[in-house]
Amino acid sequence: MQNFFWHNPTAVIFGQDTVKDLEAHLKADGIKGVLLVYGGKGTFRSGAYAQVTDMLTKAGIAFPEVNDVKPNPLIGKVREGIARVKAGGIDAVLPVGGGSAFDTAKAIAAGACYSGDVWDFFEGKAKPAKALPIYGVLTASASSSEVNNIAVISNPERESKTSFTSSLVYPKVSVIDPSFQFTLPEKQTVYGGVDIIAHILERVLDGDEGSELIDEQCYALIRTMMRVIPELIDDPKNYDARAEYALSGMMAHNGFLSVGRETRGDFSSHKMGHSVSMLFGAAHGASLSVMMPAWARYLCGDNPVPFARLGEAVFDIYDGTDDEKAADTIDALEDFFKDIKAPTTLRELGVKEGDLERLAQNAAKSAPFGSLKKLEPEDITEIYKLAY
Hints:
By secondary structure, the protein is of the alpha/beta class. The protein has helices at about 20-30, 40-45, 50-60, 75-85, 100-110, 120-125, 185-205, 210-235, 240-250, 270-280, 285-300, 305-315, 320-340, 355-365, 375-385; strands spanning about 10-15, 35-40, 65, 90-95, 135-140, 150-155, 160-165, 175.
């Protein structure tokens, strides 16, 4: 196990009917006005918008809005929010939604305190020196953005979907009410669940064999997600299943699963998935259910052990050599994705064979990347071919 420093400052209020508990935190911090950041109909359908705005109204807190935040959120919406903050009267940013709303809110919170263009953070030209506080209400678990310091934003002009990290954009307080997720469309539950599983797999398949305790936490979380996703497909209003799904989502990418590891994880599948989302508009989780098995098949021949250990711990695969168990494990993972109706080929996402080179070129802008193996452009091309 490696030496580590881990600190997560986000306070979490978890449970049903807990939005009202956010008022005390806002008042204690002297917040007079928040920028309310959210998406569309789902925010209203869940009941979250009504509860949040009722709480803010009763507290006497103003809440100008930036709405219509899309999945794979766009830099244009971030810039719109920054302009609204700079117009005055706003002390904090309050996202209501899933990862897209939270990521947009983080970029706004940092960008509003910066004199240059916020995209500088994403290109590594500058780092945030200050940010407005963020108080969030989660309505869709997937990215752990409610408890981490990462913002992922798409810039169509640059054909780039990328991120920045800063300790300044950890949400100060996040409300996680699993009942807000009762009304999620089935696909969103499935794709959010795939994203949660992928965040865990990026750690446990990174090649680090010296973090057995953390690996065991990873295996337990994957088993939980594989149990509750089908339960929620059958009964979307199963509160206990929603709660375990939301708690697993919170734990998957808040930094804890990286402690003691040589790296924070591999994340090659995420990088290649980002290119699929950027260029073809695929849901983030859908890109991951396609790219992760392809990435695994490309690498497992030279690195069978982490895949074999995953097979033993999650899929009860004990027979055969490590190579055989690794291959069977990847097949089992892909079968699970198929069972929950997540795509497993690029063709299902509208990608044509002639598009593979464009995808590879886009992803290779940040090559080499990965920890199990440093992927060069030629590796990336081969993985997209396997995913096709």
